[in-house]
Specification:
The protein is an alpha+beta fold. Among the domains are: about 170 residues, no CATH class; about 110 residues, Alpha-Beta Complex (Sufe protein. Chain: A), CATH 3.90.1010; about 100 residues, Sufe protein. Chain: A (Alpha-Beta Complex); about 100 residues, Alpha-Beta Complex (Sufe protein. Chain: A). It is built from 15 helices and 30 strands. The strands form 7 sheets. Strands 13-14-7-6-5-1-16-15 form an 8-stranded antiparallel β-sheet, covered by helices on one side. It has a 5-stranded antiparallel β-sheet with strand order 8-9-10-11-12, with helices on one face. A 4-stranded antiparallel β-sheet has the order 20-21-22-23. The two termini are about 30 Å apart.
Length: about 725
Amino acid sequence: MKKLAILTVLVMLFSFSWTMASEDINVENIPDGDYRGTGSGFNDDITVDVVVSDGQITSVEVVEHDDTPDYFEDAEEVLDRIVEAQSTQVDVVSGATASSEGILEAVKNALAGEEVEEQPEEDAQPEEDEAEEEVVEEEPAPSEPTPDVELTISGKTTETVTGLIEEGNSLMPVNTVEKVTEGSVEWDAQEQKVVITYENRPTLELEADSDQLYVDGEAVTMPVDVKNIDGTNYTPVRAVFEELKYYVTWEAGEINLYDTLEPVAEEPEVPEEAEEPEVSEEPEAEPLDVEDGTYRAASEEGRGFTTAEVTFEDGYIVDIDLVEHDDMGLRKELDYWYDVDNWAEVRDNYPEEYDSLQAMLDDLAEDMKATNSADVDIITGATGTAEKAIEAVDRAIDIAKGETGPFDGTFMGVSDIGARSWGIAIVTVEDGEIKEVELEEAGRDDAYTPIEEAELKDDEYPWDEFHEAKEVMPERFAEADSTDVDGVTEATGSVESWKQAVDRALANAGVYDREIGYSEANENGFVKADIVKDGDEIIDISLTEYDNKGLRKDRDYEYDVENWADIRDNYPEEYDSLQAMLDEMIERIKAADDLDEVDTISGATGTSEKAIDAVDKALSEGPYDGTFMGMSPVSARGGWNLAWVEIIGDDIQDVTLEEVQKDDGEYSIKDEDYDWEEFHEAKEIMPEWFEEKDSAEVDTYTEATGSAERWMDAVQDALRKSGRY
């Protein structure tokens, strides 16, 4: 893989997200109807249809555009902002400025123009006495100057220039291109054009007041004209640098240019007689007196909690998997994308070097692996996150040393997330006994409501028996020092979820053991078994079936068993839901002396076999050979990546990769129609890399970095599920 030389453009006092300052339009004065308008996008015009009803903008839809799909997909967030604000004075989307402003311009033009009328018949002629409307050409809006822009080139050279914003596009002086790329710029007076030449790059020719860029003589159309102001020519940034073979990425306040022509630096030859200079190294961490294996632990509760799975080999930490849960028990960046940017807005000392919560957790994990301990520095600005992670790892190390608890403190447990609700228990433990219990229940309207929109049920929740159970159950749990107590009639569902949550809180406190296992995966998904034990006695078994997109059936959505029954002659009609079948399997497993004796459910053989396999793996020691399905954290766009990994011994035999995308609340797997060539290239070549290295740690794939990194996470998750860290 080529080594990429990085050129970073840091924008001072200038953001690619600002509020439109132009005069707004009073929608209340606009008659009801459908309106169409056009604005200038990054590549070409953007056309929108706007519907006005009862003095309100009820919808805005894009009819046509020619901008880059990924950038435009981000920019379309502006559509919702317009409808919500009932105004065009809304923020544009950072990183998709030109497309955002094009949409806003199109909406304003639509609302300022005529109502969309039905097209006349082709042979219809205008009235003879109808006067032609006079067309008045408007003066183009003047270019907006930007504040000073500081250019940092590979950390060596610094230039300060003043650029322009033209129709949402950033322009820089042509001589800046010369300094940045070490090209040669000449003015051809006869042809009235600028010529930029290089030894190993294309020759560029630009003309003032023209959008034509000539690349080795071939014409390329830029989004806006070259501007000549007071004798200085300004050229669009992206168009020029991409033709010079730089890969351009945009973020708020920063433009990164990656030189794709930079060769891999060769190691200098060392004469045979020359000796390698001595390099002072940090002293190696001492091995710990622990048994090899993977150990799970949790921090105490503090606006949520963190779990750690720590794997040891030969006394050294070789893998740490950290998951932070919020105050409703949801897994940040696994159940939903944790918006670190919003967090940063309310934190003066936010650690800006991290672009996500997972990046912070990964950094902590690397520090702890390097020191072979939990004795690492706190991350300034993320004290709570760091302290919970360190506490969880420290407790896992203690467990690996044989100090299995129970631990005094206050611990949080969360039940399985149901289609509409789940239970939360905060349990205070002292000397292994329950001293105090606090119960909550989170709920959402239905299984299709995004999980992060769930809320805790408060005093206004209209179910008297629920409130009665919430009040009396904590006392019953504490008095019995157990969840083996009577419930409350007509609040059975809530009581059962609270029992499971309390058992899991006690497992986090070390009072009980908790074992998790995953079945092998096929094209239909896999089953997870989550078991709480008191010694050899099974206290609770939970079974969750995942589909081939990694969604939890009957939890992330309502699994339609009736539709399944329509195509199955031997469907088990006595069960009204998938969960009812899984509950039956749990009872059969508990009743059996040996898992080999557990009967499968006729008509649900696949689900039954995966359930038995998952329980078997939870109750035994890995690693396991077979095919396992791994999932990455959720991306900022709400999707995630999947990996099916077949592994035998230490050898990865086969890898299949997929990516799930979220569109209008629906999830689907990206297919061959997905318009991103580099994505498909990465999807095809990366399995070979994983198989060659027998590892999840491979090179990333340029221009598909996000997908590549999430596939590495997914492969690592599959290896963990197979019992290999």
